[in-house]
Amino acid sequence: MIGSSFARANGISGKVTYVFSLGIRFTHGIFHNSGNVSQVKDIGLGQTFPPQMVVDFIKNAVPKVSVKAIGIAIAGPVNKGVVSFAPNIWGPAIKDFPLAEELERIFKFPVEVVNNVTARALFEKCYGHAKFADSFGVITIDKGVGFKQYSNGRVLVGPDGQDGEIGHLTVNENSRRPCGCGGFGHLETDVSELAAFRIVQERSVSRAEAFRASQLYQQVAGKAADLNAEHIARAAKAGDAFTLAMLDTLCKPLAQIICNLQMADPPEKYLITGDFADTVGAPYFQALERQIKQIIPGGNQLIMPGLADKKAYLVGAGLAALNRLAA
Ligand SMILES: [Zn+2]
Hints:
Elements: H1 2-10, E1 16-22, E2 25-31, E3 37-44, H2 51-61, E4 67-74, E5 78-79, E6 82-85, H3 87-90, E7 95-97, H4 99-107, E8 111-115, H5 116-126, E9 135-141, E10 145-151, E11 154-156, H6 188-191, H7 193-206, H8 208-212, H9 215-219, H10 229-237, H11 241-261, E12 269-273, H12 275-280, H13 282-295, E13 303-305, H14 312-326
Helix pairs in contact: 1-14, 2-4, 5-14, 7-11, 11-13
Bound molecules: zinc ion (ZN).
């Protein structure tokens, strides 16, 4: 299905597809049918904005060149161009914002808005590690946690766009840890990048001696609050016991969810990806394998790493836009 979209959309020559990835950071650029994205601009935001400001941002960011379509990958469930919620972008109070419709009113050409994990699944199918799979799942570990299933030519999003929203499953009813969505004890609060930072911060106090003896301590010059994913990656790759123990704790609830998903109608493989999982790399993946094996012997066969590519969400947004043009 994607292949035929390519062929037909390629027929529209001389115009470009402009793509956005809207999450904790906003990135955008020009998508090429080769699968590359050029002129990428990256804006770290670190705060939320009202939806109308996001619309204005997109309006101003699209260059004054000949554009045939816009593809947008957004961190939140999407139902036919309506964003059900996107707490990391415009806060938890705004529901059901018709982003595609608002933008099509301005631009007069197709604007395709999809969930960012949907975009990631399209990327994996077209260019990544799922080229030869008919059925696979994609789990993304970023500041949040996402999951989508791809089956027989399309990403399954369900009738209301909510399929695969595992980040907001309640995994710990007694937890008072707030989730970005306004809930408590959700999976995201235990397994995301932010959860990794929190575990390190907590253990820098509760296991102060072990922290001071760790590679991670050296990486951050003793300041747990300055931690980022690259620090974790370097310490883990050096075999630092404190960091590897943190990754085991971080991966345990996700391993449980992956094993629970086996009870339903599971895909052949789960691709594990997302900015945090990609940055930490092999040590993250191996920690998740260890945790899954503790629940299902041999269950580590269920997962494989996705293709680490910083442009993956943008490329996926471009593929979604091409599909729309070809529809
Ligand atoms: Zn939540």
